[in-house]
Amino acid sequence: MSSSDAAVLIVGGGLAGLTVAHLIHRAGIDFRLLEARGRLGGRILSVDESGQASCDGFDLGPSWFWPDVQPSFSRLVDGLGLASFAQQSGGDIVLHRLPLEAPRRFGGLSGASPSMRLVGGTASIISALAAGLPDGNIELNARVTGAMLDGDDVELSFIDAGGAERSYRSSQVVFALPPRLLEAAVSFTPRIDQTSARRWRDTPTWMAPHAKFFALYDRPFWLEKGLSGTAQSMVGPLAEVHDATTASGKAALFGFLGLPAEDRASLGEAAIIASCIQQLALLFDSKAAEVRATLFKDWAADPLTATDRDRIAAVHPVADRGPWVGEGWRDRIVLAGSETSAREPGYLAGAVHAAEGAAASLVARLRTTRVGGRASFEGNL
């Protein structure tokens, strides 16, 4: 593999890609990671009230995990020394069923295992993973456009931060991004077999059809009224609301938009935000209209997350142990996006589980003695 630029090329700097890098680096395998965005994290994005990345932020992407049923993610959190806290759930919930019916208050649920959040926001796990990787091995603003088989190597083409077309070579490539996005964004020479391409295209991308809205406040006034901050609405525009107060006490409510992506695009962000604030005031109290700041993220409008197919809400990705890559490419590429996981696909835990499987596969492929000029590797995960 003397012509290669790294033992492994990783495409995608979200949780899955960084976890693969973390694991194979620990095993002594050289890698280079390419991320299309100007930041790491992918669908993990924690920001301050101005919308800038923050180490004590609000999660515009995923925010919860469940240690009792997601051991892979929990092990990674513990191994990185990260702190977590329980999602605020104490107090009554609010239910709004019909437009002509006032919202109603019900006693909260008890006894269930709490959803957990990371102190500092979910992006804290991204920062921790990146901090343990070698300087210079990660390239941001590198949008991969093509992959071509060339002998024992894959030549990976990408557009760099300056707009120049460049390429790297390696015998092993990990695509740590949603299969649907991979099928739409990267051309393969020779082409991926039709069965695999169809599977990639038909796999829904978690978060891609959705949007989140945050209202930030000086204090969590809903707790003073005995409310948990949780609400469900069949009236909208928010279908589901939760307390989003940070571990440091920055008060906030967040909700998932119940409006389809096309309707969100037609309404526009300003109208959606105004309508969401009005709804929160109706659900909780007039104090909900006294926001200090708002945040809005429409993942369907993010071209590095969603394709046109993702503008229509679909079912959650389903676990499937079948192969993701057919003959011709299966010895050269590995898929590691969360949606490819055989457990918890689409969730944070799915990203970690998929990454663990990809890393194990890479170690098995590279742990060979030197035969016919091929590299020898004797590391361990």
List the SSEs and their pairings.
Blueprint (H helix, E strand, L loop, with lengths): L7 E4 L3 H12 L4 E4 L11 E2 L10 E2 L11 H9 L4 E3 L5 E5 L7 E3 L9 E3 L4 H9 L6 E2 L3 E8 L2 E7 L5 E6 L1 E4 L3 H7 L1 E3 L4 H9 L8 E7 L3 H4 L2 E7 L4 E6 L7 E7 L3 H7 L1 H15 L9 E6 L34 E3 L12 H19 L15
Parallel strand pairs: 1-2, 1-13, 2-9, 6-16, 10-14, 13-20
Antiparallel strand pairs: 3-4, 5-8, 6-7, 10-11, 11-12, 15-18, 15-19, 16-17, 17-18
Helix pairs in contact: 1-3, 1-9, 2-9, 4-5
Explain what you see.
- This protein is α/β, with parallel strands linked by helices.
- The protein has two domains: 8-43 and 125-206 and 316-366, FAD/NAD(P)-binding domain; 46-121 and 209-301, Polyamine Oxidase, Chain A, domain 2 (Alpha-Beta Complex), CATH 3.90.660.10.
- It has nine helices and 20 strands.
- It has helices spanning 15-26, 71-79, 123-131, 179-185, 194-202, 221-224, 261-267, 269-283, 348-366, and strands spanning 8-11, 31-34, 46-47, 58-59, 84-86, 92-96, 104-106, 116-118, 138-139, 143-150, 153-159, 165-170, 172-175, 187-189, 211-217, 227-233, 238-243, 251-257, 293-298, 333-335.
- Helix 1 (15-26) packs parallel to helix 3.
- It is elongated.
- It starts with 7 loop residues before the first strand and ends in a 15-residue tail after the last helix.
CATH class of the largest domain: Alpha Beta
Radius of gyration: 22 Å
> Structural class, from helix and strand content?
alpha/beta
What would the principal axes of the Cα set say about the shape?
A: elongated
* Helix content percent band: 10-25%
How would you spell out the order of helices and strands? EHEEEHEEEEHEEEEEHEHEHEEEHHEEH
